[in-house]
Amino acid sequence: MMELLRAPLRFVFDRAEQGLGLIFPPEWNPMLNLGALGFFFYWIITASGIYVYAFFDTGVTQAYDSIEYMTHDQWYAAGVMRSLHRYASDGLIVVMLLHFIREFSLDRYRGVRWFSWITGVVVLILVYIAGITGYWMVWDQLAQYVAIVTTEWLDHLPIFGEPIARNFLSPDMLESRFFSLMVFMHIAIPLIALILLWVHLQRVSKPRINPPRGLAIGVMASLLLLSLIHPAVSQGPADLARVPGTIGLDWFYLPLYPILETLPGPLTWGGAGVILVLFCSIPWLPPMRKTPVAEVNLENCNGCTRCANDCPYNAISMRVRSDGLPFESEAVVDPSMCVSCGICVGACPTATPFRRASELVSGIDLPERTVADLRQEVEKICQPFKGKNRILMFGCNHGVSMSGLKQENVRSISMRCIGQLPPSFIDYVLSKKFADGVVLTGCSENSCHARFGARWTDARVARERDPQLRRRVPRERLRVLWAGRAGRDKLDTLLRNFTDDLAALPAEKSPVHKASERKKLMELADG
Ligand code: HEM
Ligand code: SF4
Ligand code: SF4
Question: What's the domain range around 441?
Fold first, then answer.
């Protein structure tokens, strides 16, 4: 059921990501920077808000006048700041909603990810409340409309002794205290949201909270340009003696107001309740399948910390050695934070398929599919692999689909994340002549389902991050493609070209393992 909802959304996001990829360099793609853009908008809102607040007067008549002064008399500074404040707030809604829907479409909200999801839902609500109080403070006709519809809606709840909508019945009933309350809420709620955003990121390591500089400059320049050519203006002073005529509605923060105004209160409250419960229960809706989390095997852990450094979800910590082995520390997995991506396995120096002397047990492993299982799969899938230019492809469950491959010279193994593959497997496949070439593929660049699988794989292959792919591995026999689900054409082209390239290579020499090398490897593997 959920998949029926997710699949079309994923299709749209994949195409949008692909389309934007034609305009932006991969790391600038806005679709891959939604969270970071959210923070960027937040900082613009804060800076412009502080400036505007310096000129804002709280009071029934002063509020509108002070904003008019900013907009018209000081249009070049406070006016621009007001517009920036407005447009960055709209931008925040756009990127936040896209981020929200995208995380859902990518199935990144279940299991241990419930934490980011639920804190995200609360932030979403707080951002809306903050925006609505902002519109209220201007005290123009739109504010009057917002005030009346909101208070009448709130009055359907039996929580206020007296109906609060009464404050807006006539001019003499409105007090400046109400404005002070709005100002307080408009400052306090974003602050609470910021604290929650910090909580939101507690379970992801190295979160990307700043967009790339070029993208940030582009966004800032666009907002400035928009502020200059289309400044934010008020819609005539509020007048409680009159019912506001036609008003321009803000479609970012207030799209539901016409519904609140027209439908009966119990129905709208009921609807809001159902949507809230649905949003909050989404992480626990079926299908619920808990994949076993990563497990440490202390006998094989030398405390090197690589797994802890590479885990994208802060699920591994290092603690003082507890088993008497002569190492300083040992890895410990927190099961409540592990998404079972396997990236830690790919990082572990003991997860090498070359180990033959003893049973292949690595320092850290996924019980559902261990390194030993993976080695067995490689050997099995390549056993009857005859012919020329044989390619073994390692891919991930979330990247480009590898099913229905036409080329007879290609076999594939799919994993939870490509980051699960220790680089020594590439060496193993090529040096043992299981295949003539290896392809690594997965989610598109900067869009890895498990956040760092593609990035760490790139760095390991480029020998910039441990465990490094050994120098002796012939790079001309390796191809890497980060293409995402929409990249099947790219994969087919790469496989065709790679086949031709392999055919053009001189015949390979016999396996490169010297006895001394092999011994060194075993020592390293056994810690
Ligand atoms: C102003 C609002 C928000 C901001 C600035 C924000 C920012 C971020 C950032 C920076 C990340 C880390 C991304 C990365 O480095 O991979 C993140 C992750 C996440 N966000 Fe948000 N977020 C916001 C609202 C939301 C909302 C409304 C939801 C959904 C209800 C949500 C759901 C998630 C989830 C599920 C993750 C974890 C993704 C994963 O497990 O890889 N966020 N957010
Ligand atoms: S499986 Fe993934 S989330 Fe779990 S400990 Fe390993 S790297 Fe971290
Ligand atoms: S990478 Fe392997 S050896 Fe290193 S600390 Fe983690 S489990 Fe231990």
Answer: 295-525
Q: What local confidence, expressed as pLDDT, does residue 509 receive?
A: 55
* Ligand 3 atom nearest 308 alpha carbon: 6
Question: Contact, 331 vs 303, CB < 8 A?
Answer: yes
18 assigned to some structural domain = no
351 pLDDT tier (thresholds 50, 70, 90):
very high
User: How are beta strands 478-482 and 437-442 bridged, if at all?
Assistant: parallel
Task: Evaluate whether 513 touches 472 at the Cβ level (below 8 Å).
Answer: no
Q: How far is CA 478 from CA 181, 390, 396, 495, in A?
A: 63, 12, 17, 11
pLDDT, position 358: 65
Distance 520 CA to ligand 3 centre (A): 18
Q: What is the tens place of the pLDDT at every residue in 44-90?
A: 999 999 999 999 988 878 899 999 999 999 999 999 999 999 999 99
Domain membership of residue 504 (yes or no) is yes
Note whether 336 and 431 are same-domain residues: yes
CB count, 10 Å around CB of 276?
A: 12
One domain, residues 368 and 511: yes
Q: What are phi and psi of 166, to 5 degrees?
A: -60, -30
Whether 234 and 308 map to the same domain: the answer is no
Which atom of ligand 1 is nearest to 339's Cα?
40
Query: What's the gap in Å between 82 CA and the centre of ligand 1?
Result: 27
Ligand 2 centroid vs 452 CA: distance in angstroms?
A: 11
- The model's pTM is 0.90
Whether 314 lines ligand 1, by a CB cut-off of 6 Å, is: no
Q: What ligand 3 atom has the least distance to the C-alpha of 304?
A: 4
Q: Which residues contact 464 (CB under 8 A, 6 or more apart)?
A: none
